[in-house]
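Sample entry (171 residues):
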Amino acid sequence: MKSVISILLVLAAVTLCLFGCSNVPKEPATTTVENHSYVNPYGETVAAPQNAEKHDKVQYLETVNDIEFVMSSYYVYNNCVAKIKDFSLEYVMLNVDPIAGLASVEIMGKSLGEDYMKIGYTAYDKNGTVIRETHLQASLDGAGKGDIVEKCVFELPEETVKVVFHDYVEK
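Predicted structure, serialized as tokens:
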């Protein structure tokens, strides 16, 4: 009986050691600022020329809009670690939040039992007011260390001028 208890205690200790290992890098994350643009095909309306047809009385001019992104070298969520490799922005008029982003997320460390890696982001308008605070998520299903999860969607309101990505914490 003592040997069974000893074996169980050893197995429990080994299991705790394995689960207690941290995937978080020892060095602190570094921060960078990047500017990205998107094209709004309906950005500005102008009156059509006098000789235009009745149905062509309004014309749309596309505008190029810049957004400042504050990025970290890695993000942590429930002992999972990842970084945003790159992303693209697109204007999608039919969305509630018309600026759609697609991010590629590289998995740097994965915790057992986690289905998603979440990265928080906060969007600000020109006055510095928070207009969106949520997260993007990368599916960890079949993904491991070094894998890149493509097409992680995030959406932004049209009045966004700055986005800060950060570690996501459940509220």
